[in-house]
Amino acid sequence: MTADDSFGRLDDDDYPAYTMGRAAEMLNTTQGFLRAIGEARLITPLRSAGGHRRYSRYQLRIAARARELVDQGTPIDAACRIVILEDQLEEAQRINAEYRRGAGSSGPPAA
Q1: CA 44: distance to chain centroid?
Q2: Which InterPro entries does the record associate with it (predicted)?
Q3: What secondary structure does DSSP assign to 83-110, as a single string?
Q4: Is the Cβ–Cβ distance between 55 and 12 less than 8 Å?
Q5: What is the DSSP secondary structure assignment for residue 74, as one 8-state letter?
Q6: Mind listing the pLDDT tens digit for each residue in 52-66?
Q7: Quick check: 46 and 88 in contact, CB under 8 A?
């Protein structure tokens, strides 16, 4: 992999670019919070060659939403479940919109 390939991956929402310490700092939370949402299986950080947790921008957005709910008084397990359901709903709506676009462009079936 060249240096250009590495820099290009930083634009990838799923690229695990952030260490646990940096992720916690960016979210203004603790590393313990990140471990807790990992234990609740909200996010599963990738591991570096040395075994350190690494987070993607997508995972940080998910963690930020969970933190928002916890800050509002929602228990962490419930916050994680809410975020999972919100994510599933968003994906289902995206698939439904694609289906509708595909069904609309093919026109009515011939009689």
Answers
A1: 9
A2: DNA-bd_dom_put_sf, MerR-type_HTH_dom
A3: HHHHHHHHHHHHHHHHHHHHHHHH-SPP
A4: no
A5: -
A6: 999 999 999 999 999
A7: no
Q: Which residues of the chain have pLDDT under 70?
A: 1-10, 105-111
Cα–Cα distance measured from residue 82 to residue 65, given in angstroms and rounded to the nearest whole number? 9
Query: What's the one-letter identity of residue 85?
Result: L
Query: What is the CB neighbour count within 10 angstroms for residue 102?
Result: 9
Mind listing the domains of the chain with CATH numbers?
Answer: 10-99 (1.10.1660.10)
Tokens of 110: 């011939």
- Kindly state the helix (H) or strand (E) to which residue 53 belongs, with its residue range: strand 53-55
Question: What is the distance between the alpha carbons of residues 72 and 88, in angstroms, rounded to a whole number?
Answer: 22
Phi, psi dihedrals of residue 61, rounded to the nearest 5°: -65, -40
Q: Token pair for residue 32?
A: 């313990």
Length of the chain: 111
CA–CA distance, 27 with 23 (Å, rounded to integer):
6
**Model-level pTM?**
0.76
